[in-house]
């Protein structure tokens, strides 16, 4: 005897299959998100606000729909790409402290951060242009940067190479001011400003 046709049961199986298929494919893939962020960071640094989602998706090897599944708006994508870049910059602080005396590590990190700022000025311009929400797009990265500066200052105090009365937020404010003007400065000028900052951070250290 042949199988009995049960339309309701068949329809339920189809719905279950389609739902499970959509769930598997709609879920964001972290690896894809990282790849998109990497490409977005590079293109925004090169092209600024003129960068298009289609160009990012094409160079990341994904469809535009996949891009929007991970990053629903341009603002979300820009914040994610910028945050990832800053996180990598901040990780450098711990690496430098582990390899060099704290004062040398601090100078090297400041140079690295400001070189990054000069190379990525277009990304910040794009981020500022894309902000439509009331949220502070730099809140997360500011926290990361203060953590990196704190790592450097604490190491300097332990080793006796940096002043102990310096607040990380103050250093970040000074460096951020330089970074905001870095696009209109030469690398030589930026490094002279780092010299001035290092003079301030090491003033009277070791004096009796």
Q: At the third CATH level, what is the topology name? A: Tetracycline Repressor, domain 2
Shape: elongated
CATH superfamily: Tetracycline Repressor, domain 2
The helix content is over 70%
Average pLDDT for all residues: 82
Flag low-confidence runs.
1-27
Q: What count of domains describes the coordinates?
A: 1
SSE sequence, one letter per element: HHHHHHHHHH
Largest sheet: none
Number of strands: 0
Quote the distance from N terminus to C terminus: 103 Å
Share in β-strands: under 5%
Helix-strand blueprint:
Blueprint: H1 7-26, H2 30-47, H3 53-60, H4 64-70, H5 74-99, H6 102-119, H7 121-130, H8 139-159, H9 168-181, H10 187-201
Helix pairs in contact: 2-3, 2-5, 2-7, 5-6, 5-7, 5-8, 6-8, 6-9, 6-10, 8-9, 9-10
3D architecture notes:
With 208 residues, this protein is mostly helical. The protein has a single domain, classed as Tetracycline Repressor, domain 2 (Orthogonal Bundle). It is 75% helix and 0% strand. It contains ten helices and no strands. It has helices at residues 7-26, 30-47, 53-60, 64-70, 74-99, 102-119, 121-130, 139-159, 168-181, 187-201. α2 crosses α5. The longest helix is centred in the middle third of the chain and has 26 residues, at 74-99.
